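Deliverable D2.4 — example input (structure tokens):
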């Protein structure tokens, strides 16, 4: 018998809701713009109300979010820069509408878990970075997420500055030149006046980006020693990752063994940014079967 599982991928610009089965096959899917919390959550509830046999829902949300189960604000989006979404109870309305197990995690954790499930060979650990409008990372260790008093914010780590990039102050509103402030999608516009799509890979700005992303991979390697580091998001392409691998190799200097570099630093397995939906199905299934 098939188990019906729900997925909400809650992004700052759009929501993707899906139902699927225990083999992670999508049965139905809808996407709509992120407007007010009330209207957007109601659209998600309306979608899932069509499926009375739903067994669980997993939510992978933009953040920051409250993940401590005993916090009065568990299930809330907290101090997000997204207008109208500060201190919003996300899980409460879902709990009211559906008497089901509801999993609550970050968007990057959802993607990380999807890639953990989809890996061609069984893994114990991986780290998934997204480099797009923002930068974030989901960390899976021994099949669970890292983070106790909150989720990791690896997008905001500090990196050593590239000598040819010292004039650029960075664009993170909190830290200026943290990783996100130096490599997120909008940095192309800030550095060159052009969106990233229009900046050819031959432009030196891509080498500067690779220098920073390779440091993120290095620090991740040294701190966590995962089996795989995956880079997804709009900024990332295979040719860009080739630059990242070259820089990474120089920085690591064979200090520790990481296996085949092209397998170690990779693009996502899931097509069309589908990692989070798969991850949600797997997390919802885990909530039902555990
Ligand atoms: Zn920052």
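Example output (designed residues):
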């Amino acid at each position: 018998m098939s188990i019906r599982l729900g997925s909400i991928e809650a992004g700052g610009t759009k929501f993707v809701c899906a139902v699927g089965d225990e083999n992670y096959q999508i049965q139905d899917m809808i996407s709509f713009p992120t407007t007010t919390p009330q209207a957007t959550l109601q659209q998600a509830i309306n979608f899932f109300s069509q499926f009375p046999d739903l067994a669980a829902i997993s939510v992978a949300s933009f953040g920051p979010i409250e993940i401590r189960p005993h916090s009065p604000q568990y299930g809330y989006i907290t101090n997000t820069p997204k207008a109208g979404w500060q201190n919003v109870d996300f899980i409460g309305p879902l709990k009211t509408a559906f008497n089901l197990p509801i999993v609550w995690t970050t968007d990057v954790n959802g993607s990380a878990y999807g890639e953990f499930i989809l890996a061609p060979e069984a893994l114990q650990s991986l780290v998934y970075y997204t480099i797009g409008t923002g930068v974030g990372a989901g960390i899976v260790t021994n099949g669970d997420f890292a983070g106790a008093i909150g989720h990791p914010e690896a997008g905001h780590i500090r990196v050593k500055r590239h000598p040819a990039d010292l004039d650029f102050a960075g664009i993170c509103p909190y830290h200026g030149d943290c990783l996100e402030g130096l490599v997120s999608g909008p940095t192309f516009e800030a550095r060159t006046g052009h969106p990233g799509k229009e900046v050819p890979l031959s432009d030196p700005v891509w080498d500067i980006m690779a220098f920073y992303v390779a440091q993120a991979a290095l620090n991740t390697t040294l701190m966590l020693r995962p089996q795989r580091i995956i880079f997804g998001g709009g900024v990332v392409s295979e040719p860009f990752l080739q630059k990242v691998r070259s820089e990474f190799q120089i920085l690591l200097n064979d200090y520790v063994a990481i296996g085949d570099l092209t397998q170690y630093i990779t693009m996502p397995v899931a097509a069309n940014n589908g990692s989070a939906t798969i991850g949600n199905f797997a997390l919802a299934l885990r909530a039902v079967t555990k």
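Residues 204-224 form the longest helix (21 residues).
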